[in-house]
Records
---
Amino acid sequence: MKIVIAGYGYVGKAVEAALKSYHDIRVVDPAINDDTINSKIYDALIICVSTPEGLDGWCNMQNVYDVVKQSTYKPILIKSTISLEGWKHLAEEVPEKDISFSPEFLRANTALEDFAQQKTMYISENNFDFWAQIFRQAFPDISFKTAAAEELILTKYLRNSFLALKVAYFNQVKDLCDATFTDFETVRRYVTDDERIGDNHSYVTEEKGFGGHCFPKDTAAILNSARDVGEEFSILRKAVSYNRSIRSGLRE
Ligand SMILES: NC(=O)c1ccc[n+]([C@@H]2O[C@H](COP(=O)([O-])OP(=O)(O)OC[C@H]3O[C@@H](n4cnc5c(N)ncnc54)[C@H](O)[C@@H]3O)[C@@H](O)[C@H]2O)c1
């Protein structure tokens, strides 16, 4: 199958690496070439473009909209992280385009390995069989699960939000240890010995709190989506504002 990948960053590179032995892959990304999607003959399109934090924390999906607009009526799979409002916008503006969503959970530092070693791929209901078939060739042993696109959009945001909460929690655990003259590292290790807790995201870095490519923008985006439907999501809102204060050196 001839597949175009739009966006050749961490996610696009990982998707290409996994699929290139099984499909004819072409990449379109203004950062590396002058190609456009329309200059390609292709059967399907996978969107891996950046979706940065936009005004007031909303997910800026302009890159996704641009690529969708350029594409012809071939199946499209969005691997970029997108918002509920953005998905609704696509459904309203281009209902004729055959769009599916598949959340991506790789980590930037270990993108290729994470993608290669994934155990489950989630693909929204529309065109599930088509996309599962494309990836099954590269991943014969993983399970493919499906749900409504909106449920998978939330799944992506809520995993990152939970991990961000965990980082914030352990930052406050460290403060409690310091205030009680106990050794944070000992407490951290023994708390996380409980396999239900686990030691990922329990470290307190020099910068404090959470940062990086995804947690700040994804938590900001889901908080906006929550407020949009009248949900405060106060536990996450508090963690995000606490995080902002410790990262800028100001305590709440
Ligand atoms: N990096 C991660 O750890 C990670 C994990 C899961 C999901 N995601 C999500 O996947 C998406 C991509 O993330 P990334 O880390 O690969 O981003 P990235 O910034 O590394 O790469 C994105 C690429 O998209 C290209 N691009 C932008 N507009 C384009 C357009 N109109 N046409 C073609 N290419 C275009 C950019 O030039 C860039 O090379 C984002 O939505 C991100 O939130 C990232």
Note: The longest strand covers residues 2-6.
---
Amino acid sequence: MAPAEIAESELLLQTFERRFLAARVLRSFPWQSLEEKLKASSDSKLLLHLLQKPSGDAVTLRESTAIIAHGTTGLVTWDAALYLAEWAMQNPATFTHRTVLELGSGAGLTGLAICKACQPRAYIFSDGHSHVLEQLRQNIILNGFSLELDVTIEPEHPTVTVAQLDWDTGTGPQLSAFQPDVVIAADVLYCPDAILSLVGLLKRLSGCRKDQRPPDVYVASTIRNPETPQLFTAQLGQAGISWEAVPPHDRTLFAYEEHWEVVVLKLTL
Ligand SMILES: C[S@@+](CC[C@H](N)C(=O)[O-])C[C@H]1O[C@@H](n2cnc3c(N)ncnc32)[C@H](O)[C@@H]1O
């Protein structure tokens, strides 16, 4: 197939995928374009791609239709959350039998995917915004997890908790109560204030473990401009936190909205 044809086919596949994920009625799918493409193509690759989409456990989410609502960006899922979830599913050992603290969980996609696919021992969702926390609790329950503190329903299910954790006001004792082995965050570096608050919190987190072993930290960010990641890495340097970029992976599992690059940084506190 010529490059232009491949691009057209990919767009068509993406439209099918998005409509499927958004549970649109079947008649709204681009059947006519598919028929035309299939008639014009000499092989059945397009049909195979369409039929061989990955299947498995699903995450169900209630989300806002607006990207900013109630003064927060946390009521929708951002691409970095999808990217981090996809990375986690390819690297489950990072989370298996470990206690995970997520900062700025938003709608909960990454954490729910990790809880379903990576067998963490405990998962602490957190956010600073009360509307976000309310929706997050609903999404966790919607996906079959219990929110009762310290209760494990079945051995393979993690203990799931939700914490109100503001990066500016989260105290040492509050952070010590979590005892995380791994800390993750997706799309949390969107303005200088957020970066300063987050780095401050990471610094306080570094000494919070009883065994003095700092948690592994993974931060996924969409690169929308060069200044924001530069400010983040400069602040990390000032705080004495070293970092390395995690090798990129192909985005195949989800219907990503944006075409910006997404990177995951692994931090050493
Ligand atoms: C762009 S959203 C990302 C949500 C989710 N991680 C995702 O990628 O879909 C940023 C999230 O960080 C939270 N947040 C921003 N500043 C915060 C702060 N100072 N303390 C705690 N949470 C904060 C917001 O409430 C929001 O849920």
Note: The CA atoms of residues 129 and 232 lie 22 Å apart.
